[in-house]
Amino acid sequence: MNAVSSDRLFMQRALQLAGLGQGAVEPNPMVGCVLVRDGQIVGEGYHQQYGGPHAEVHALAAAGEAARGATAYVSLEPCCHYGQTPPCTEALRAAGIARVVAAMRDPFPLVDGQGISDLKAAGIDVEFGLCEQEARDLNAPFIKLVTQSCPWFIAKWAMTLDGRVATRAGDSKWISSEASRAIVHQLRGRVDAIMIGRGTAIADDPLLTARPPGARIPLRIVVDTHAQLPLESQLVRTANEFDTLVAVSIEADRAKCRALAEAGCEVFALAAGTPADRLWELVEELAGRQITNVLVEGGPTLLGSMFDAGLIDEVHAFIAPKLVGGLFAKPPIAGAGRALLDEAARLGNVEVQQVGEDVYIRGRTIRPATS
Known about the structure:
Elements: H1 3-19, E1 32-37, E2 40-46, H2 55-63, E3 71-74, H3 88-94, E4 99-102, H4 114-121, E5 125-128, H5 132-138, H6 140-148, E6 152-160, H7 178-188, E7 193-197, H8 198-204, E8 219-223, H9 234-237, E9 244-249, H10 254-262, E10 266-270, H11 275-288, E11 293-296, H12 300-308, E12 312-320, E13 347-355, E14 358-365
Parallel strand pairs: 3-4, 4-5, 6-11, 6-12, 7-8, 7-11, 8-9, 9-10
Antiparallel strand pairs: 1-2, 1-3, 12-14, 13-14
């Protein structure tokens, strides 16, 4: 095996390790590190928990003295600043690392190439760009939050074969199979927030928790312009147990808002005038709270608004072998939509899987290239 092939294998291992931190490290990026000396792995690690040691520190601890003279393969440029933890560049230098191969630069402003510069200044050979696209795909939500001040929005829905998420009477339980719903619970357990509209909150009365619990307990968000969320709903009744944010218009009935707040909900008033402007105001608020991943579970009005605004980054769709028909049965995405098929949003990195009787399709929205 030549040096380039072995470099790629070790970096792929670092990326694999990085993925183990999904759902536990946000708003930090997922990072993996593999230390290699004389062609053998002497230590490896990954960022396991927000606020905890970084991947490089775990790998160095595992390697001990064997780290001296080794090559460090890291899925992201090592940090060079004091934050929750000391700089990883200093830890690598102190351990005697001879070479660092980083998949990509860290876009976080306090790093953004400075980590590479510091390592080079310390006499360490540095290369970057190996498996860069894989690294960017892995940390796309982090990159979006840091560079665009916008969370990563994951749209999820279950629909019948004829493209309906509810019958004309509003019945939607259950379209997908128990196995499909188990996957949804796994998704819920790795995101920072779950968002639904008022209509879905009233029609389905969901709890919006991961069962069993995942790596994190997501913030539950209800977009409820007029503060109409029933006090007897599961979301309100459990608001003291699970953080719940109700986003309302500043013109919403004050008594209703006060009742929701007294029940334990955080009521966030949106001052913007139009629904589209209020949506963006909410997006900015979530980004300000460093919320990285948001799972949007509907309904059609909310998903339509997000689709029209170009906010959907990722789609998880479950298609059940059922037909309901009806002109007034609800589709998964409402809103204005696209006038021409040439304007249709397309998905990349598409994966298709059969889950019981359902078909599970997931992919990421392909963004137009920017100059």
